[in-house]
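We now fix the convention by which a protein and its fold are recorded. The integers have meaning only within a learned vocabulary of local backbone shapes. A record is reproduced here so that you can trace the correspondence yourselves:
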Amino acid sequence: MNLAFPGALSHTWYVVTSVLFLMTHAAFYLVVSLPRCIDSIHMIHVSRVVLLAGIVAAGFVSLIFGSILATVAIGLMVYVLAWRDRQYTWSAVSGLVFAGTLINGWDGESLIWAGIIALATNIILALHFRSDYNRWISTGLWLFMPITVAHALYPNGLETMYYAWMYLVVMLALILSRFIAIGSLLLSTSVPMIVYAKTASISYVVGYVVAGFLAFCLSINSGMDNFGAVAVSSWISLLMLLVARFIEKEPEISVVQPILWQVIAFGFLRSLKVDLRIDIFLGLSTLVAVVIYALADWWRHLYRQSRIVDENTVIFALLTSLITPAYYFVYDITKISMIIGLFVVSGLTYHYWRNRSQGYKEVSITVFTASVMWGMHYFGVREFQAYTHVFAIMLAFFAWMRHELGQVIKSDEYIYGALSVSTVPLAIQAMSSVSGGVYGWVLLLEQVLIMLIGMSIRKRFVLMWGLYVSVGAVLYQLRDLGYAALAVLATFIIGVAVYQLQKYNK
């Protein structure tokens, strides 16, 4: 008798047969193997491995022949296994099987339903079993949903900004999932509190961070001349504030706020059809940095235990103030707003370091001096001595500040530095054959001023510095009889200085 099936088996027959055999195997495991092998861990483990192999085989057949219903049936069967066997590994397998419906329906009209089934079932599994495996799977499905929706509903393509909005929705959904997972919403008294630990649902944190980052990047690279980037960045800013305050309760999250508001300012100006757009942006960027810095610093000191901002937010706001002067390296031209921006940087850094050691304050003052020199160059000052003397004034100011702090040795070091910077370059130019006479007069008058300052501050080495340099300048000028008048005047001034020095020594 011939028991062979007539003709070849259809794809549907393969799928139905594999699912029925799998269900029979699962029923045998639950009814026979599990109760009888309850005292033999090894036998139960072997039975589970064999059943898992059957699930993989049936799932592979279902995916190959594209049957969504069969994949859902296998997923439901594994869900029952997880419920009856009380093994969370089965819940992870069930979630992966349900996620396979996306493969079944990718090229069909039922793709959107396949995506909904995959996501919804994994959310249910995560809520039921509190399994991190299903949380990671559902997070991945959330991040894949915008692509699924676009492929199912817009096969001809979709504007980048729409992807940004969809990822913003995904970010909101994952934040809500995190809110539920840590027990802040829909808290169940039947669930152990350790399940609500923040580390137990870290997948949602990774998910909403990735979704927010994608929404942010897609919005600023959309190429659409509208306020899409402004709106998306504003929503991300609001969501991150809520996360920092009510969900994670970690103020470090707010470090993104200064960057987001810079993007908001840029997006706002990107749509303006004016020639001075870059100038407006540079000015607005500096203003935004100052406002965010002031608010963050005020809030940090007003509420010491604030869960919204901390010192890191203040630091990031301070760093964003560097955007305006840094634009010089982008455009290779100087704008007055860049100089003002560098001046603002010096002010903000001095304010931030106002309670730190003197060295930090000197860095801020150095930045201020750099902004002054930049402004001098912008307005056409090309005299080298102007810059050296500005730098010398800065060193003299440092010396005064150190003296007020009682740091005499450090103060004297700065005085030596100021004397060297103001004298050496000028002396070199005074020896020039082109315009040395003019610089010689300036050098001599400067040394007279240095001697007077030395007498007023009672610093003998300052007075002697001015005296020796004056003598050297006179001797150099006397190489030519044409400088006799200058020599007479210098001799008189030096004589007065020597007299005052002798009087001071007495």
Confidence is low (pLDDT under 50) at residues 1-8, 188-197.
